[in-house]
From TrEMBL:
Belongs to the SEDS family. FtsW subfamily. This is Probable peptidoglycan glycosyltransferase FtsW. It comes from Candidatus Gottesmanbacteria bacterium RIFCSPLOWO2_01_FULL_46_9. The chain crosses the membrane at residues 31-50, 70-88, 95-118, 124-146, 158-174, 180-197, 204-222, 288-307, 319-347, 353-374. One of its GO terms (molecular function) is peptidoglycan glycosyltransferase activity. PANTHER family: CELL CYCLE PROTEIN, PEPTIDOGLYCAN GLYCOSYLTRANSFERASE FTSW-RELATED. It is a multi-pass membrane protein.
């Protein structure tokens, strides 16, 4: 009798364990996961569509860019799954080491033989198997570090926060990369706000940062030409304003329903950066206002689900981490799309999950894996 009872007890415990495991595996925010991977798959399609001419010109291979993007997508899926299964609180312990490694990588871009100088910028590192852009990793490392730091209340951290920002943003600006610097600044300020900082700090922060960004834009000739183009779109139509004019021409050609997938004219070397920063212009041209609106609503949905995950997080670290990652997607999307419709000057910022680029794609999927893990542990 005891034997039968013990067998029955073990069987019950085993079934309960299975149910617990299933609950953990399937309790993540599935709508968020579906939206992220649907947008990423659409991005792979658009990378191929927008890069055919460029691939033939540069590599004599129309499939070169889509093959690379697919490779990164597979790596991104693996990274996403690992982070979705890994307890998010591990990142609290890794916050400082990850920030330290990222700062070293940001400095390594200037070391000859390691850093890559392209188009007058030092933004990449050759690590042998792949090319890494440390500034993309810096976004996530900063979010994790600030989420860990702001978890505990602290009365006088305003100047420490300014010093931290100056250190991270200063290294990114030396590359130079104003677009990424603006994203990092925006995310950091939002996290500082979400942590419950007093409003008077923002009355000091925002004018100071606006002054710094304005000064940086004025001292660099190419940034100054972008500002001039923004205020006067007819200035230098074959030079400084050429890209934004072609972007607007592409978006305008799309009309309500677009010219059809694969039928863009701008991708045939009329539009610079057609598969990276300006890819939304190709989307707008081929799918029209309706297709562009669907993409915008997809980003809004992802950000909303991310904020929803944050609102249900069981602890302050999880809440700030989800808020920071969701804000990252929102800010980067707003900056890219704002530049595409001439609401802000061109900044060279990629469109999340869609633009061609390995570092941005993989790090974003890693970050969404963390949000997925947070969503499993609702408060």
């Amino acid at each position: 009798m005891k034997f039968l009872l013990s067998k029955l007890f073990r069987k019950k415990s085993s079934s309960e364990a299975v149910r617990t495991v299933k609950k953990k595996l399937f309790s993540a925010d599935r709508w968020l996961i579906v939206a992220v991977f649907a947008l990423s798959l659409f991005g792979v399609l658009m990378v191929y569509d927008s890069s055919v001419a460029i691939g033939i010109r540069d590599f004599s291979d129309q499939y070169y860019f889509v093959r690379e993007q697919l490779k990164w997508f597979v790596v991104g899926i693996v990274v996403f799954i690992v982070c979705a299964r890994m307890q998010y609180r591990v990142w609290y312990t890794l916050a400082l080491p990850l920030l330290f490694i990222t700062l070293l990588l940001l400095m390594a871009v200037f070391i000859p033989g390691i850093g890559i100088n392209a188009l007058g910028a030092h933004r990449w590192i050759n690590v042998g198997l792949f090319i890494l852009q440390p500034a993309e990793l810096a976004k996530l490392a900063m979010i994790i570090y600030l989420a860990a730091w702001f978890t505990h209340p602290e009365k006088s951290r305003f100047f420490s926060f300014l010093l931290f920002l100056a250190m991270v943003v200063g290294l990114v600006m030396l590359e130079p990369d104003l677009g990424t610097s603006m994203i990092i600044l925006s995310i950091a300020i939002l996290l500082y706000f979400f942590s419950g900082a007093p409003f008077r700090h923002f009355s000091l922060l925002i004018p100071l940062i606006a002054l710094v960004i304005g000064g940086l834009a004025l001292i660099a000739p190419y940034r100054m030409s972008r500002l001039t183009t923004f205020f006067n779109p007819h200035y230098d139509p074959l030079g400084a304003s050429y890209q934004i004019r072609q972007v607007l021409l592409g978006l305008g050609s799309g009309g309500l329903t677009g010219v059809g997938i694969g039928k863009s004219r701008q991708k045939y070397e009329y539009l610079p950066e057609a598969n990276t920063d300006s890819i939304f212009a190709i989307i707008g041209e081929e799918t029209g206002f309706i297709g562009g609106a669907i993409i915008i609503f997809s980003y809004m949905f992802i950000v909303w689900r991310g904020f929803r995950v944050a609102s249900q997080a069981p602890d302050p670290f999880g809440r700030l981490l989800a808020l920071g990652i969701s804000s990252w997607v929102a800010v980067q999307t707003i900056i890219n799309l704002g530049a595409m419709v001439a609401l802000i000057p061109l900044t060279g910022v990629p469109l999340p999950f869609i633009s061609y680029g390995g570092s941005s794609f993989i790090v974003l999927l890693l970050a969404m894996g963390i949000v997925s893990n947070i969503s499993k542990e609702k408060s």
